[in-house]
DNA sequence: AAAAAAC
């Protein structure tokens, strides 16, 4: 309620004149569709993002430790299957963009590290030749439109098929789910329910994800790929957990997909045994290994007592701390990195928009939505109440088809919101970090960070909801004076992935210095003044 | 560094 009032007040206090120049200035790098994007960025004096990124991944500016057993190759990346954008949504976007073939994205460099790394494959056919990929899986691949393996698929799948532990780092929207689902299905053999199965009784594969929505999405992907076979693939929930309390039912299950706490609850109640699990996958691994989830994960890992247990972790980001924990958990692991670690796809045109203060955010957003945009748009905020109140505020301002999603909503409300999104009924989805990871909405072409993300990882995952499977995307991030301490860090991410950043932001002092300043007695206005002094906007001309 | 998410 408080947040609601705050936002409303903000509306009344908005001074268009005062902020107009800032907003225009920092929107300069925004895309206006397909081909013109490159031109605009060229005008800023930079290389086009593709080239810039390419140069970077070629190792030009990056310092890389030469380590033993490490090799780097050009992966085909294979987002390369370019096609027209789906463009079945957003009838008011009306531009030639829909009909234009965008240039092929950069091929991602793939680097692997570990002992006896299996060769990658260049096609799904090769998986059949080398590993006898079952014909029904091949059929389902074709049926679901998978024609060529992406980078992570062509490297990761052979590794998993050869029963090795794997740590996979690959950008958002590059097909990580299939990379672990396919090997699991291939190795299952006969369903547990069948008399032919001699693989012991009980769950043989376990996939963990941080949110219900993501678990649900993974479940769907499994079902699609398993079509035609009788495996029991269970999305763990209160309801399914109850049915599995019966050991006979439980023994017939082949794959379980769950969130950690749900699983631990059943484990502790003695309603679930994991001693037959051969494949354990942690999706969004860094999220799963951070403080709140870690003990739950450890409990699950401990319960997976089968000697043939193989583990794999997947994520788009893996900070050093999480990577260390992951590597210690794995046995003789192979590490695969596609592209540059902690760098978003260059396909996403990113920009930073200065909004002065909290109160100016809403008006800026309303202005944004009063101009043409490509629905559906995902808007991220920092808390549940802010999500509800912002959604409410947009509705009050007659913005059509606004939706909201956060973990404070009931299971059904959440499911409905996701399904509206999937059906294209939501034009604007206001959400918390729940939606930041893993969710694959192919239509999303714009992400707005209404509240500034608190970590680079959060930023990368949030904007990774767009630009998926080789499509273009756009990401706008609002920042206020209060966000100054973290601004430069995020700005470097933009820069690294080929999006233009205003000079003055790059000239900001080191984040640590800014942070100390922000924590001290320094008035917020100081940042603005300093920014002006350094050369942002018209103000400098007065000097 | 801190919130959100998991039940």
3D structure, described in words:
Keywords: ATP-binding, Helicase, Hydrolase, Nucleotide-binding, Nucleus, Ribosome biogenesis, RNA-binding. The chain is an alpha/beta fold and 543 residues long. It has two domains: 2-50 and 350-542, Rossmann fold (3-Layer(aba) Sandwich); 110-338, 3-Layer(aba) Sandwich (Rossmann fold), CATH 3.40.50.300. The protein has helices at residues 2-13, 16-26, 36-43, 49-57, 124-131, 135-143, 151-161, 176-188, 212-226, 238-243, 247-251, 260-268, 285-288, 291-303, 320-329, 358-370, 384-396, 411-423, 456-463, 484-496, 503-506, 511-519, 525-534; strands spanning 70-74, 109-113, 166-169, 205-208, 233-235, 255-258, 279-283, 310-315, 334-338, 348-354, 377-380, 402-405, 428-431, 446-449, 473-479. The strands form two sheets. Strands 1-2-9-3-8-7-4-6-5 form a nine-stranded mixed β-sheet, with helices on both faces. The longest helix has 15 residues, at 212-226. The relative contact order is 0.13. The model is unreliable at 1-106 and 519-543 (pLDDT under 50). The structure holds one DNA strand of 7 nucleotides.
